[in-house]
Design brief:
alpha/beta, Rossmann fold, 9-stranded mixed sheet, 15 helices, globular, hydrolase
Length: about 400
């Protein structure tokens, strides 16, 4: 390992901040009831109200903080940026290095359910060696710093993650990403393909390169219009889900209730109707994430990825291609993902060395959280095949 050694990190957020968060939620909830049509139906408004009621009267932040601290977490300064990450080595011997890049609106918590499966597969009836798992927090999310005074794109984070893995002693590794994390993972594969054994994506946040010789097909244009890539591929087009400036940061800075309304709406829209995040079984994990955003004051910083990646879009030039062996996991009915046999995969085959497309039998962009073993088995099969 080169450079400084990582420092062990423990989540210790002040009790007075937690009390202030709950006080603000109670005050705002009383004077700002949900509008009649906050989402698609009144039932959604009632679900959000139940979520906030549980936040006030049933949610135990101290218990969730203790659960977070069961994970081996570290911080390390990489190129002057303080990076927070989980690093869990494989049980019983050397593992295959694997970096997991989380999405928005989410945090490193998104991948924690995968850690025990990936590091100890034999306990779950999965053959093969385990993984050494690294889950960095994206810059500006939770406990990772975001450099100030300049745009910070997928490409910048990709370079940071390469240097992080190098400092952890990994010369070659696999990467899996979702949402923003998929954009970072793709740029990692583009920057240093020789260091990556496999690339697994659960969404594709890199638009096809512009080509005067080869226009996109109708199916490809439709796929882009339905996905987050449309905003990068055609910035002039309106997109109601993507903030067009960083001004929203100021509106959310002092309001945990507004943070919750903003993020929960995105989760419900992108997770699909079968992933009802208002159900009590999801409350603790969702509220831990919402609390983490507000208590660390990073909601606004996380939104900047939309802004900065329009300034520096993750786009390849015509004729260029990501050469790392790539698999795409499809969660049906989530934004931008349709059936694996559709023509919308034409441009992805032009952009990636696409060797595997898997349609997972669950609905929603956050299928990793709802059934971690699905993605775990996909990673074992694809990454181990690439390692042979």
């Amino acid at each position: 390992m080169s450079g400084a050694a990582p420092g062990r990190f423990v989540v210790e957020l002040p009790d007075e901040d937690v009390a202030r968060m709950l006080q603000l939620i109670d005050q705002e909830r009383r004077r700002a009831p949900a509008p009649e049509a906050a989402w698609a139906s009144a039932a959604d408004c009632r679900g959000f109200d139940r979520l906030c009621d549980y936040w006030l009267n049933g949610f135990d932040w101290s218990a969730q903080q203790a659960r977070l601290n069961e994970q081996p977490q570290f911080t390390l300064e990489v190129d002057g940026v303080l990076v927070h990450f989980v690093h869990q080595r494989a049980a019983g011997g050397p593992g295959i290095p694997l970096l997991l890049a989380h999405s928005w609106p989410s945090t490193f918590l998104e991948y924690l359910p995968l850690v025990p499966v990936l590091t100890n597969p034999s306990a779950y009836g999965i053959p093969g060696p385990g993984f050494d798992v690294v889950i960095p927090s994206l810059p500006g999310f939770g406990f990772s710093e975001r450099p100030r005074g300049k745009a910070w794109s997928y490409a910048a984070t990709a370079g940071l993650w390469h240097r992080l893995m190098q400092q952890l002693g990994y010369s070659e590794f696999a990467v899996s990403g979702t949402g923003f994390g998929a954009g970072v993972a793709s740029m990692m594969a583009w920057q240093h393909p020789e260091r990556m054994s496999a690339l697994q994506l659960n969404s594709v946040d890199v638009p096809p390169p512009p080509s005067p010789e080869q226009a996109l097909s109708t199916a490809e244009l439709l796929a882009l219009a339905q996905s987050g890539c449309w905003d990068a591929a055609a910035p002039a087009q309106p997109c109601g889900l993507v903030p067009k400036s960083n001004m929203l940061s100021f509106a959310l800075a002092d309001s945990p209730y507004s943070v919750a309304a903003w993020i929960v709406q995105r989760w419900r829209l992108w997770a699909g109707p079968a992933a009802d995040l208002s159900e009590a079984s999801d409350h603790d994990s969702l509220l831990t994430m919402l609390s983490l955003y507000w208590l660390t004051g990073t909601t606004g910083a996380s939104i900047l990825d939309f802004y900065d990646n329009r300034a520096e879009p993750p786009r390849l030039e015509p004729g260029q291609k990501i050469t790392v062996p790539t698999a795409i996991g499809v969660f049906p009915d989530s934004a931008g993902n349709r059936g694996p046999d559709g023509a919308e995969f034409e441009w992805q085959k032009r952009l990636y060395r696409l060797e595997r497309i898997t349609e997972f039998p669950r609905i929603g962009s956050f299928g990793v959280i709802h059934d971690p073993q699905l993605l775990a088995r996909e990673l074992f099969q694809f990454v181990q095949d690439c390692a042979r």
